[in-house]
From TrEMBL:
Protein origin, superkingdom: Eukaryota
Listed name of the protein: Kynurenine--oxoglutarate transaminase 1-like isoform X1
Catalytic activity as recorded in UniProt: L-kynurenine + 2-oxoglutarate = kynurenate + L-glutamate + H2O; an S-substituted L-cysteine + H2O = a thiol + pyruvate + NH4(+)
Domain Aminotransferase class I/classII large: 30-410
Classification via Pfam families: Aminotran_1_2
Native source species: Bos indicus (Zebu)
InterPro entries, alphabetized: Aminotransferase_I/II_large (IPR004839), Kynurenine-oxoglutarate_AT (IPR051326), PyrdxlP-dep_Trfase (IPR015424), PyrdxlP-dep_Trfase_major (IPR015421), PyrdxlP-dep_Trfase_small (IPR015422)
């Protein structure tokens, strides 16, 4: 066709580095995929049984349910998170069920961000935030977490990465519409402290800004750190959308059930987008998630709770991966939450500066391609989680997913040991 086909809102966002590296990994035989953020172990038995019951039980679960959420699910989400947030949550007005957290984010951006609106994004950031802002007509404004210096030989921690309060305040203007918060953070694994959240809350209230809080990893917090929802702070429920994911909560990323919680003054606009786009999410998945939350509500805070057991298990996975990477010469940054850790590859950059690739291609991308092809290990380059001007400053980090089965971690160990043997004179 002679006419332009694609809408202008797609300009500049058609290429996804994350998709490229996942596809690259699929082209190679005998690789250990530590790049994609999904567990390769079984979900909890109660969740699997709930899904089986939803499929084989009530035949009406094969049909439409309420457009904004299966009533038992919106009811248990309202009850469960109402206690955590200190709010009386109305299942009909304050809860929206979406196609995963990704769908929740897209719905929020489309509902609230207008042409020319500024959206503040903390770097490093989950890489959908920028294109979703652009697709809605907004302008991304970036503010970076910066690592504090550590003593030589001292292990780095994600808690050492901090926002500069003065720089953060300078990003708010009369055009700022939304602030994107992700805690625990992907890819860094940082869990924002109460003091950091109070600073963000103060600025959002001062400048009348909506906070879109992506909290999909809220149950994956380690080392005694505590997840705090910004919506629970004084004055923030009225201006916050809190986004969650059953995929991360119950280790079922393929179910694609997510949700948004917030005040009706914001949620009514998300419902408008929802009813005029996807309209409805799969009923059986929602039913299984509802039953899983009902089970968790009975066990919450006890050793039998999955929300207690899961972080204990994946902290052991994290510690295993850190020790293995350190033995190979990597310098991991210990995460306090999420599925991920990043590791400093500066030593490799110094020893192997001239890896194949385009001259302007960030080093971490060339390193990951080389590592996939030659060492059979899949990671994600850190530079894709930064805005273009800042990518060159952080191209000496790569990201690994440590939420993996013991057999996967052993396969990683074998490849690292083989790599190490090749380096031994």
């Amino acid at each position: 066709m002679a006419k332009r086909l694609q809408a202008q809102r797609l300009d500049g966002i058609d290429y996804s580095p994350r998709v490229e590296f996942v596809q690259l990994a699929g082209e190679e035989a005998d690789v250990v995929n530590l790049g994609q953020g999904f567990p390769d172990f079984s979900p909890p038995e109660f969740a699997v049984e709930a899904f089986q019951h939803a499929v084989s039980g009530d035949f009406m679960l094969n049909q439409y349910t309420k457009a904004f959420g299966y009533p038992p699910l919106t009811k248990i989400l309202a009850s469960f998170f109402g206690k955590l947030l200190g709010q009386e949550i109305d299942p009909l007005k304050n809860v929206l069920v979406t196609v995963g957290a990704h769908g929740a984010l897209f719905t929020a951006f489309q509902a609230l961000v207008d042409e020319g609106d500024e959206v503040i994004i903390i770097e490093p950031f989950f890489d959908c935030y920028e294109p979703m802002t652009l697709m809605a007509g907004g302008r991304p404004v970036f503010v970076s977490l910066k690592p504090s210096p550590t003593q030589k030989g001292e292990p780095d921690s994600s808690s050492n990465w901090q926002l500069d309060p003065t720089e953060l305040a300078s990003k708010f203007t009369s055009r700022t519409k939304a602030f994107i918060l992700n805690t625990p953070n992907n890819p860094l694994g940082k869990v924002f402290s109460k003091e950091e959240l109070e600073l963000v809350a103060s600025l959002c209230q001062q400048h009348d800004v909506v906070c879109i809080s992506d909290e999909v990893y809220q149950w994956m917090v380690f080392d005694g750190f505590q997840h705090i929802s910004i919506a629970s702070l004084p004055g923030m429920w009225e201006r916050t959308l809190t986004i969650g994911s059953a995929g991360k909560t119950f280790s079922v990323t393929g179910w694609k059930v997510g949700w948004v919680l917030g005040p009706d003054s914001l949620m009514k606009h998300l419902r408008t987008v929802h009813q005029n786009s996807i309209y409805h999410c799969a009923t059986q998945g929602q039913a299984a998630v509802a039953q899983s939350f009902e089970r968790e509500q009975l066990h919450f805070g006890r050793p039998s709770s999955y929300f207690v057991q899961l972080p204990q298990y994946i902290q052991r996975c994290r510690d295993h991966m850190i020790q293995s990477l350190q033995s190979m010469g990597f310098r991991p940054v210990t995460p306090q939450g999420s599925y991920f850790l990043i590791t400093d590859i500066s030593d490799f950059k110094n020893k192997m500066p001239d890896l194949p690739g385009a001259a302007d291609e960030p080093y971490d991308r060339r390193f990951v391609k080389w590592m996939i092809k030659n060492k059979g290990l899949v990671a994600i380059p850190m530079s894709i989680f930064f805005s273009l001007p800042h990518q060159k400053f952080f191209d000496h980090y790569i990201r690994f997913c440590f939420v993996k089965d013991e057999s996967t971690l052993r396969a990683m160990d074998q490849k690292l040991q083989k790599w190490k043997a090749e380096l031994t004179p």
